[in-house]
Amino acid sequence: MYFSLSYRNMGKTLTAGEGSSCSRYNYWTVGTAYQSCENPLPVLSKFHNSSAEFRFANRDLRLTQDWKKLGVAAVVWDAAVVMCMYLELGKVELKGKRVIELGAGTGLVGIVAALLGAHVTITDREPALDFLSANVEANLTPAPQQPVVVSELTWGVALERYPAGGFDLVLGADIIYLEDTFPSLIRTLEHLCSDATAVLLACKIRYERDTNFLSMLKRGFHVEEVHYDQERDIHLYRARKLPTRRDL
């Protein structure tokens, strides 16, 4: 079976969505008209919709959302959309690569990475796993070439269950927002990355703490901004682990 759920004891121009009337990613609710440029919905209203639809990797995708039950973990944020658009550009080699997504939420980024040929592990905390798994299974039928695993991962906890330096690419979309999690997130990145691993982080810089995270990350990683989506105010950063210094 192409899809598996693993419970681990751990806590273009960029273009997408052809058919939209306003050269933006294709977003609409099931059973209602999609959002138009002329009559935009309030900023947060889309998060309360029961689903969101997109077109990526030549596939129509429908992501279930559940703001009332799971809050921020169960809605599609702009950072995830921009990340998927960037992946579609082909700037990052995905085919056959070992990829892990952190804080996946609805699973959109990991799903798109799988459709683009990556061998993907899609992770989040335990309360979101059933919801995440349902989205992955619904949108990856028929099966992609590479298997997809949905797995529990609490940052900084029991990291030995994941191979040290065992991934070619680590993805994270809008996962930089809780300051208390920053040290655990960085420990997780340090564990998952080898010197050859690339990290892609998509985020909106909302507060000073967000730039503080980037400063913390730079202590152990080379960090550069590789894309900025002005319309959605989303920054995309690429990071690589700095070589380990050895005493002479």
UniProtKB/TrEMBL annotation:
Location relative to the cell: Cytoplasm
Predominant location: cytoplasm
Keyword Methyltransferase: yes
CDD domains listed in its UniProt record: AdoMet_MTases
GO terms of biological process kind: methylation
Top-level division of the source organism's lineage: Eukaryota
A GO-annotated cellular component: cytosol
InterPro entries attached to this UniProt entry: Methyltransf_16, SAM-dependent_MTases_sf
Molecular function via GO: methyltransferase activity
Reaction it catalyzes: L-lysyl-[protein] + 3 S-adenosyl-L-methionine = N(6),N(6),N(6)-trimethyl-L-lysyl-[protein] + 3 S-adenosyl-L-homocysteine + 3 H(+)
Keywords: Cytoplasm, Methyltransferase, S-adenosyl-L-methionine, Transferase
Presence of the UniProt keyword Transferase in the record: yes
Classification via Pfam families: Methyltransf_16 (PF10294)
Family listed: Belongs to the methyltransferase superfamily. METTL21 family.
Protein name: Protein N-lysine methyltransferase METTL21A
Organism: Austrofundulus limnaeus (Annual killifish)
